[in-house]
């Protein structure tokens, strides 16, 4: 009788413990979802309001209705209208030229530099890596005056190279650091197996390492392009009417009246600039996930 009672008490305590653990896990999941929802709303609310205002008629610019009302496409036409001196279409082309050039050059240099820092042993390797990381922390505002003076002296003011080279100096440390961390995690056995099969070090890098590094390269390319696309401070000082990117063009939008700020046209231009970046991230995200869930590294 005593043994039966003890077993019953033990089972009751075990059931209570399991229920407590299940309740704890359930509430932990609820807190996680609530936190994710709050962060999502906090991050997307400004972008949502930008899109709503972009599709709203000018006369209802300050309407506080939280959903689209008085929908029109005139603001997007106004954004590309050059009659007010706004050259948004040319600015888009300038940003694409600058962003693609900066991304390609940074990746070409960054891949080889990151591989050398991660896989090769040479003197002062960690000093070089520390110097690269230190360069990424240097404030851009401190470079405006010397860059302005330098490019004025050599006749580069308002040219593409005056906007590309400073962007490379900011994007390259991020590229090198990201790819170095990835290459460092890849097992040495992959290259050793390739050499056993008759590949040289260059062939092993090209045929084995680079395909497996595709997810990291895609990620780094996205970060580099977005960083270059969103740069404003240096571009506002070193560009002119022919080479200014979209960030500078939107900031200098003019309306029909001399003192009028075309909020709806600015929001339309911001939507045009932002949506392609979102689509780009979503497209490459699928490829990144596919690459991370397959291959020898896993």
UniProtKB/TrEMBL annotation:
Spans annotated as Disordered: 1-20
One cellular component term from this protein's GO annotations in UniProt: plasma membrane
Primary subcellular site in the record, as a coarse category: membrane
UniProt membrane topology term: Multi-pass membrane protein
Keyword Coiled coil: no
Keyword field: Cell membrane, Membrane, Transmembrane, Transmembrane helix, Transport
Highest taxon of the lineage: Bacteria
Transmembrane segments: 32-51, 91-114, 126-148, 160-183, 204-226, 261-284
Record protein name field: Binding--dependent transport system inner membrane component family protein
Organism, scientific name: Pseudarthrobacter siccitolerans
């Amino acid at each position: 009788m005593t043994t039966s009672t003890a077993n019953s008490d033990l089972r009751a305590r075990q059931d209570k413990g399991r229920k407590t653990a299940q309740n704890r896990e359930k509430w932990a999941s609820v807190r996680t979802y609530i936190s994710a929802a709050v962060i999502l709303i906090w991050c997307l609310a400004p972008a949502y309001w930008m899109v709503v205002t972009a599709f709203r008629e000018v006369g209802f610019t300050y309407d506080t209705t939280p959903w689209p009302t008085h929908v029109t496409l005139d603001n997007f036409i106004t954004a590309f209208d050059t009659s007010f001196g706004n050259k948004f279409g040319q600015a888009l082309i300038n940003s694409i030229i600058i962003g693609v050039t900066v991304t390609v050059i940074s990746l070409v240099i960054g891949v080889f530099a990151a591989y050398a820092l991660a896989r090769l042993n040479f003197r002062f390797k960690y000093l070089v890596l520390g110097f690269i990381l230190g360069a990424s922390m240097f404030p851009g505002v401190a470079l405006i005056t010397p860059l302005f003076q330098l490019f004025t002296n050599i006749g580069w003011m308002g040219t593409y190279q005056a906007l590309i080279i400073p962007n490379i100096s900011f994007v390259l440390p991020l590229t090198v650091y990201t790819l170095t961390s990835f290459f460092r995690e890849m097992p040495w056995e992959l290259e050793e197996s390739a050499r056993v099969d008759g590949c040289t070090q260059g062939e092993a890098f090209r045929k084995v390492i680079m395909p497996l590094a595709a997810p990291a390269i895609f990620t780094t390319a996205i970060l580099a392009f977005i960083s270059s696309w969103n740069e404003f401070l240096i571009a506002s000082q070193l560009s002119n009417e022919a080479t200014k990117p979209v960030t500078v063009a939107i900031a200098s939008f003019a309306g029909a009246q001399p003192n009028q700020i075309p909020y709806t046209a600015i929001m339309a231009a911001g939507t045009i600039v932002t949506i392609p970046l979102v689509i780009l991230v979503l497209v490459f995200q699928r490829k990144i996930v596919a690459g991370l869930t397959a291959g020898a590294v896993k």
